[in-house]
Structure formats: structure tokens, C-alpha cells
Amino acid sequence: MRLLGKVAIVTGGASGIGAEIAKVFSSEGATVIIGDIDDELGSAVVNSLISKGAEAMYSHLDVRSERDWNRMIGHTVERFQKVDVLVNNAGISGAAWHMKLDIQAWDAVMNVNIFGCLLGIQMVIPHMIDLGFGSIINMSSQMGLVGSTSTHPSYNASKGAVRALSKGIAVQYAKENIRCNSIHPGPIDTAMASDIFKNPDLMSGALSKIPLGRIGNTCDVAYGALFLASDESSYITGSELVIDGGWTAY
Ligand SMILES: NC(=O)c1ccc[n+]([C@@H]2O[C@H](COP(=O)([O-])OP(=O)(O)OC[C@H]3O[C@@H](n4cnc5c(N)ncnc54)[C@H](O)[C@@H]3O)[C@@H](O)[C@H]2O)c1
Predict the structure, then answer these.
(1) In this structure, what are the phi and psi dihedrals at residue 85, rounded to the nearest 5 degrees?
(2) Residue pair 18/10 in contact by the 8 Å Cβ criterion
(3) Which residues have CB under 6 Å of ligand 1?
(4) Distance 35 CA to ligand 1 centre (A)
(5) 0.90 exceeded by the pTM?
(6) pLDDT, tens digit, for every residue of 54-80?
(7) Which residue has its alpha carbon closest to ligand 1 atom 41?
(8) In this predicted model, what pLDDT tens digit does every residue of 185-217 receive, in sequence order?
(9) Whose CA is nearest to atom 42 of ligand 1?
(10) What domains can you pick out in the chain, each with its CATH number?
């Protein structure tokens, strides 16, 4: 019960890493609010948490929409009185790179991966200041630290921005007892990375870069998020938790 009594919002919690974070947080005693654009999957995750006796709520959230954030946070505070933890996990990988700047592809990735993240932080901070406590966890990527031949550079740029944004927020709000950290997963077995798993060349290329010799699973990331959400990490802010099997250690 490492999160007993805590209220945690997880964006992109309908599938993949976000759904695993929601499950792990819930099993550790947190009340979990999932915000996602996939209402069917998101509600299914919440219903499965409730069926195990947990407190949970689903709210439609497009992270690019201030109105959606207002509604979700309003309902959360009305029903559960506070927000202790925000996990900005929703993200998209974007289009393939064809050596040409496509402004629409750039905007699509930036709007979800970095603008959506900042919008959520801006919305939740006043409640965390009132509470005198907060842990914000932003999902970056190992692609926010290094480059790759198979990733659209706008994805690298967005995830690098998530890393720097986290440090900025950490420094600005430390005096309010609000911590902010980024997580940097390597390839994790979810729908987002399925192109890698389907393509033997991409798969062997990825594995050759991972000293631990395997693709990560969603639990590998969820337990990192659990640590950053819990009071066990109360002296950690502005840090990068890299969960990549050693990819970036090369
Ligand atoms: N899977 C990987 O290999 C990997 C590696 C590094 C980082 N990440 C990051 O982890 C996070 C989760 O990725 P995943 O692998 O679980 O992918 P996923 O596609 O399984 O899940 C992403 C979730 O985000 C939601 N989403 C997308 N756009 C949204 C929006 N505008 N508003 C609200 N929700 C939205 C989707 O509906 C989905 O539920 C992302 O930020 C991703 O960049 C993933």
C-alpha cells in the first residue's frame, strides 16, 4: 500500500504503459482517475479496478483540450477532494520520417506530447499548491536523450522537451513541495512499439542496442512510476528515470 490515500491522475491510461500504471497505483492503494480519448478502453480499465474494490474514475480527456482538463480535474476535486499525483503519460509516436519537414506531422506530435503535458501541469498545480504536496511524472522516452535512425525527429524533439519541461517545473515549484520528474523508457511491448516487433530487422536492431537483451514490458515502467509517485522518492525532483535495459548506457 505504497500509495494509500493518494489521488492520482493518469493520462493515456486506456492502454499500454498508462493502463499498467493505473493498475499498479490502484493495487498500491491509490484512487486512480484515467483520462484518455479512447473512452471504451479507458472505461474498461476503470471498471476492472472498481470490480477489485478500488476507487477509480474515467474522464474523457484529449490532453490538447483545456476544457477537457478543466472538466476532469473539476470532477476529481469535487469527488475526491484533491490531486496528489499527475502522470502525463499520453503520447503518440507520429508519422514516419521521409527527410522532409511536414508541419502537420510536427504539430500533431508536439501538441499531444509536449503541449498536452504542459497544459495538464498548469491545470493541476493550483490544486497541488493548495494541498502543499504533489508529484508530477512526465513520460518522456530514451528518444528524448538520444537519436535513432528509425524515429521521426519530431518525436525526439517532443520527448527532449518533456525532459527539459520537467526540470523547469521541478525548480519552479520545489518550494511548494511539488516534485516533477521524467521517465525515459526504451522499447516497451505496447501497441505504440508494435511496428518494431512485427519487423524482424527493426527487432534485431533494437535488441542489439539493449544490453539486458530484451524488450521492456509495461510493468518495468509502471514500477518506476510507482516509486516516483510514492513518498519513497520525496528527495527526488528534476531527475530522469531511465528504464531502457541499458540502451543509453552505450
Ligand atoms: N512503447 C514504447 O516503446 C515507449 C517507449 C518510450 C516512451 N513511450 C511513451 O510512453 C507513453 C505511453 O505509450 P504506450 O507505449 O503505452 O502507447 P499506447 O499507444 O499503448 O498508449 C497511448 C495512450 O495514449 C492515448 N492518447 C493518445 N493521444 C491522446 C490524447 N490526445 N489525449 C489523451 N490520450 C491520448 C491513447 O488513446 C492510448 O491509450 C507515451 O508517451 C510514449 O511516447 C513509449
Answers:
(1) -135, 135
(2) yes
(3) 11-12, 14-18, 36-38, 61-64, 89-92, 112, 116, 139, 141, 185, 187-188, 190-193
(4) 12
(5) yes
(6) 999 999 999 999 999 999 999 999 999
(7) 91
(8) 999 999 999 988 899 998 999 999 999 999 999
(9) 91
(10) 7-249 (3.40.50.720)
